């Protein structure tokens, strides 16, 4: 049981959603964890142990004299006298000494562990959205970020202009002409190099799409290849292919900003994959022929119901929402 609790504790300490609950930085995560704790009271001790570690533990910084510690320890050890006639007493005494030594070592190790955890926790900042949730952020340098549903952004406290992205986000990077400081967005597949501009990045399913609205950016692809982008261009990178094209009527792409999805020549099946990534609903086609229906134009996405209603009107299908999936008739 102890091993299981330790494993759960480790998972909590590495869970960005749990950290958002601790710091109350994400409303969706706060609601989720409050509900989870209410329904899992047996885990309350582990939950609040993890919370204490994330927040860090305050230590009394008064330094204790080392000679005093050694003298107290010597007094304890001197009181433990081994018997000449009893191996049992001798073993018991040895055990006591080992326990004291172990306790001293453990206290020191725990102190170092908590200081280390507190240091690294304070240095790392992350934000995460749940399915169907968006989040507007303003970074320390003035850059504005809108995080789409089921997405996460993270960075080191001292380096807010070097962020890691999982999912999708729209960036309005603050230009710093005095220092000419670059801004970096790192995904699994590539790195975006920016000075100040507006662009969208979607990093899902081992593929990264970058659509540039304003300014100029450079991409460093996985493998070292570099690409320069100008406004109105799309770069789509995966292990299978690299697409670098000017946006046109025939190009297949999807993007998102201002509570609106923009689809261009996107098959319905790919549109629903996009919806699944954002809202968390898998889907099922009753008629496979419907998968190839094309969608172009803006689809509002304030909520899932409005979004699906617009899709139904656009391609003439019926979409039913069940408890666990979308059914397309």
Q: Which structural traits does this protein have?
A:
329 residues, alpha+beta, globular, Jelly Rolls, 3-stranded antiparallel β-sheet, 19 strands, 8 helices, single chain, 13-stranded mixed β-sheet, 36% helix
Q: Secondary-structure blueprint of this entry?
A:
Blueprint: H1 2-13, H2 16-23, H3 27-39, H4 44-55, H5 66-78, H6 87-123, E1 124-128, E2 135-138, E3 144-147, E4 152-156, E5 159-172, E6 183-186, E7 190-194, E8 198-204, E9 207-214, E10 217-221, E11 226-229, E12 233-238, E13 242-246, E14 253-257, E15 260-267, H7 268-279, E16 283-285, E17 294-300, H8 304-315, E18 319-321, E19 326-328
Parallel strand pairs: 5-6, 16-19
Antiparallel strand pairs: 1-4, 2-3, 3-5, 4-5, 5-8, 6-7, 7-10, 8-9, 9-12, 10-11, 12-13, 14-15, 15-17, 18-19
Helix pairs in contact: 1-4, 2-3
| CATH class wording of the largest domain | Mainly Beta
CATH architectural label of the largest domain: Sandwich
Element-by-element helix/strand order:
HHHHHHEEEEEEEEEEEEEEEHEEHEE
Number of helices: 8
Q: Could you say what the CATH topology of the largest domain is called?
A: Jelly Rolls
Number of domains: 4
């Amino acid at each position: 049981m102890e091993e299981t609790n330790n494993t759960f504790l480790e998972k909590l300490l590495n869970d960005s959603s749990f950290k958002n609950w601790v710091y109350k930085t994400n409303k969706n995560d706060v609601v989720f964890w409050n509900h989870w704790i209410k329904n899992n009271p047996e885990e309350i001790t582990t939950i609040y142990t993890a919370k204490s570690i994330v927040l860090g533990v305050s230590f009394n910084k008064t330094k204790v004299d080392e000679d005093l510690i050694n003298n107290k320890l010597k007094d304890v050890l001197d009181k433990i006298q081994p018997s000449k006639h009893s191996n049992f007493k001798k073993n018991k005494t040895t055990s006591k000494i080992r326990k004291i030594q172990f306790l001293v070592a453990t206290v020191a190790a725990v102190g170092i562990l908590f200081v280390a955890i507190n240091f690294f926790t304070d240095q790392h900042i992350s934000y995460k959205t749940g399915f169907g949730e968006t989040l507007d952020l303003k970074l320390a340098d003035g850059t504005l970020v809108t995080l789409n549903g089921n997405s996460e952004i993270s960075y080191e406290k001292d380096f807010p202009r070097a962020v890691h992205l999982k999912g999708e986000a729209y960036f309005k990077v603050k230009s710093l002409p005095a220092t000419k400081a670059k801004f970096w967005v790192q995904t699994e597949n590539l790195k975006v190099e920016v000075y100040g501009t507006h662009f969208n990045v979607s990093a899902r399913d081992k593929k990264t799409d970058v659509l540039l609205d304003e300014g100029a950016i450079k991409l460093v692809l996985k493998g070292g290849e570099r690409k320069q982008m100008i406004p109105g261009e799309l770069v789509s990178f995966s292990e299978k292919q690299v697409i670098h094209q000017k946006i046109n009527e025939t190009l297949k792409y999807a993007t998102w900003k201002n509570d609106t999805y923009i689809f261009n020549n996107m098959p319905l099946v790919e549109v629903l994959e996009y919806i699944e990534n954002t809202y968390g609903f898998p889907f099922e086609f009753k008629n496979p022929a419907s998968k190839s229906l094309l969608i172009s134009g803006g689809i509002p996405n304030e909520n899932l119901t409005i979004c699906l209603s617009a899709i139904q009107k656009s391609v003439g299908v019926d979409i039913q929402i069940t408890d666990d999936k979308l059914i397309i008739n």
